[in-house]
């Protein structure tokens, strides 16, 4: 009887230990709703996410991505630093991919698709002992360096919009920056489409829209950081805050002395035609919602400019469509379709222009671009014409032939007197 009681006691202790271990185990979804992709803010996006987590032995990392578009590799520190994916410790190509953190120490993960790692698809984490073990104190931060006032453009070229991946995008932008009293925040947005409100911490966390301290509806908007402490900003348009258009920063005292006025924004300078690489080094592919809106944001397109769409032949195409087709992602009534990269399109009229892909669900998944073309020079603005029609765009002499009615559209390249030459570039990605 004694031996049976001893066996039951040992069994009970084992069960309790197992239950405790199971309860302590945590699954960390990398990037949360942002997922695992080439992030708009570079590698800082995943640094910010990791900095807010506590990883313990037994936890699981879950990488959510679309199979075929992304992958994830566990690598050494050297491979992580150099983005070398030739000999990964472990490679997973099917999403979601899970990795169990079974030892303490550093773990390194990268995306091995072409240049994805260099563009920020990489994450390094530190795993401590089991849950409940003491965590070492973080290293003290260095003292702030004296400097003069700085004007920060919120989101840089990304601007102030509903960001891809939610609020992590603006947390990533602010990460590593030091904001001093006397600095200025510049929010760039299109008047009528966005706004920015300075709010309380409670309003920021709950996205309450009726308690703003200051609301500015015309872009660009400037906020002078006059006192130390936390500042909270949100967009008040319908659900913009809930979708991630929010920024929290901390302002410290300026050891550099008295503040100065922010540098005024220069007036737009008249220019000739320019060539824009759509998506820059990102290229033209399924990049997620708002990626190409972010790329176009802040750019001025004038008549005579050229759009270059770079992609891998056989995997993408470029469709010129109407606004209705753009909004509904329909592909059965395109204005023109181009299938051979690079596709070069000259913008020959003012107004709205719409581009998508005819591949299944590519448009729904974010492969779509809308731009507004102004007059021939930013120095002599004129009223925009009606929305894009089959005769308002023309392929350049370097473009492959279009299908459908677009092929018969009259080109205005000779009549405009402009000839844009450029290097043919391979498929590339964001900086």
TrEMBL record:
Keywords: Disulfide bond, Glycoprotein, Signal. GO terms for molecular function: electron transfer activity. PROSITE patterns: PHYTOCYANIN. Residues 1-24 form the signal peptide. InterPro entries: Cupredoxin, Phytocyanin-like, Phytocyanin_dom. Residues 128-148, 376-400 are annotated as: Disordered. GO terms for cellular component: plasma membrane. The keyword Signal applies. Residues 26-129, 150-253, 274-375 form the Phytocyanin domain. It comes from the Eukaryota. Residues 135-147 have a biased composition (Pro residues). PANTHER family: BLUE COPPER PROTEIN (PTHR33021), PHYTOCYANIN DOMAIN-CONTAINING PROTEIN (PTHR33021:SF325). This is Phytocyanin domain-containing protein.
